[in-house]
Design a protein that fits this description.
mainly alpha; elongated
Length: 199
């Protein structure tokens, strides 16, 4: 089966319409050319759109596909935010902390200590110690006083540095001091910040 060849005169009209601001899908449909062929021709011939003041440049996949992808991202983000809000609300109302979101532990313990009273704060410390949580000595001082929220956040970042890097997609060796120095460097930093690690 012979491949259909679109005449140069048709491509000239396609280029004129696209450079005039029409979408690739609309132009491709009108002149019966494929969208991928349009993009290929555009790259080969260096087609240019008007300055952005005349309107945004259409994404390569077309506005409809772009909008659909953005809608899916939006829906996922809202679902994640609602799930997080539910988890935070449970913990803030005195629910168990065992399933509290890792990156919000500092905020939650500080909130509970401020709003749910010293009895809940003491129970939180006792439960954390019973479960041998790795951050317990960084969260409370020798006298059982909860440290500042910023100190709690720093402790979690230092303890779970590799998890943070994995979650944001940082490869090994890239940006080595993010989100904090590696453990062999961060211990003195923690000491300088007054993290009194007690036995």
């Amino acid at each position: 089966m012979a491949r259909r060849v679109t005449p140069d005169a048709v491509w000239a009209e396609v280029r004129k319409a696209w450079e005039g601001g029409e979408t690739a899908r609309v132009v491709a449909k009108r002149y019966d050319v494929g969208v991928p062929a349009l993009w290929k021709r555009r790259e080969a011939e260096g087609w240019k759109r008007p300055e952005t003041r005349f309107g945004p440049v259409e994404p390569a996949e077309g506005w409809e596909a772009w909008a659909e992808a953005q809608a899916q991202k939006f829906d996922r983000r809202i679902a994640d935010e609602r799930a997080l809000a539910g988890d935070l609300a449970k913990a803030m109302q005195g629910g168990p902390m065992e399933e509290a979101p890792l990156w919000h532990l500092g905020f939650l313990y500080a909130f509970r200590a401020r709003h749910l009273g010293p009895e809940v704060a003491a129970q939180d410390r006792a439960r954390a110690m019973e479960r041998h949580q790795p951050w317990v000595r960084a969260f409370w001082d020798r006298d059982g006083q909860l440290r500042s929220e910023g100190t709690l956040d720093l402790a979690i970042i230092q303890l779970y540095r590799d998890t943070w890097r994995e979650e944001i997609g940082l490869p090994d060796g890239a940006a080595p001091f993010m989100p904090c120095p590696p453990p062999r460097v961060s211990a003195p930093v923690a000491a300088a910040l007054g993290l009194d690690v007690w036995d």
